[in-house]
Write a structure and sequence with these properties.
The protein is built from 5 helices and 9 strands; from the N terminus they run E-E-E-E-H-E-E-H-E-E-E-H-H-H. With about 280 residues, it is of the alpha+beta class. Helix 3 runs parallel beside helix 5.
Amino acid sequence: MASIWKGSLTFGLVHVPVEMKTAVRSDHISFRMLHAEDLSPIKYERVCQADGEPVPWSEIVKGYEYEKGKFVVLTDDDFKKAALDSSRTIDIIDFVREDEIDARFFDTPYYLLPTKGGEKPYALLREAMRKSSVVGIGKVIIRKSQHLAGVRVIGEALVIELMRFENELVDISEYSFPGSSSLREQELTMAVQLVENLAEPFDASRYTDDYRSNLMKLIRAKMKGKKVTAAEPLPDDEDSKVLDLMTRLQASLEEAKAGSGGKKRVAKAAGGSTGKRSRQKKTA
């Protein structure tokens, strides 16, 4: 797999030569827009809103809309003046504890691999970070754009995650969320007990994209010329008939206990001891 970026990971006076490679892959099903009559692909044109005529690339400029319908045009020279000096380093500014970082800051992960001569300092940095339980926070320039980045240890790998800057997050205060003063102690105790009953070690293989699977089944059937029929509607959810929150919680607890073979785990919030967790069968 080709490298996305090559350079050095730096902290203090230490330089670790590394290259960046993708850690995720897109698994979306893509579709083309076709003409229904002959299934020819549809081509999109750049059309001027004023006269409805197609516009060639040579006549297109970039503009920033500072008011409705008012623009400031930026040229290639303007973008060059604003560009940062090219850098081939990931500059670690701070090492911080992972639990201090809001998860909303993290975006796209990439693997950092050592390049020739970087194996030992790479391993040294990785183990030092592992023992200290920290994440390195720094900046990196990729394709002329500067990114905030976090470097963390996952197994034997150093993983860099491109992060959002603070101004990119919507402040929580812009929305209204319910408080906890209206909750009754009994309701909270039962809710905690239900959460404890459903608690399991994280296993990514247990979670799959059901919509994608259904689409692929339908596509394969149509490729073979088979007739595709609509799935039967799901039966009404019995829980939807229950209006009382306590009754809902009780019904959920009974279902969870039945799913675990009758073994009951009492939540700590209820004052009991937590029994051995058993993997419960999840139904779609």
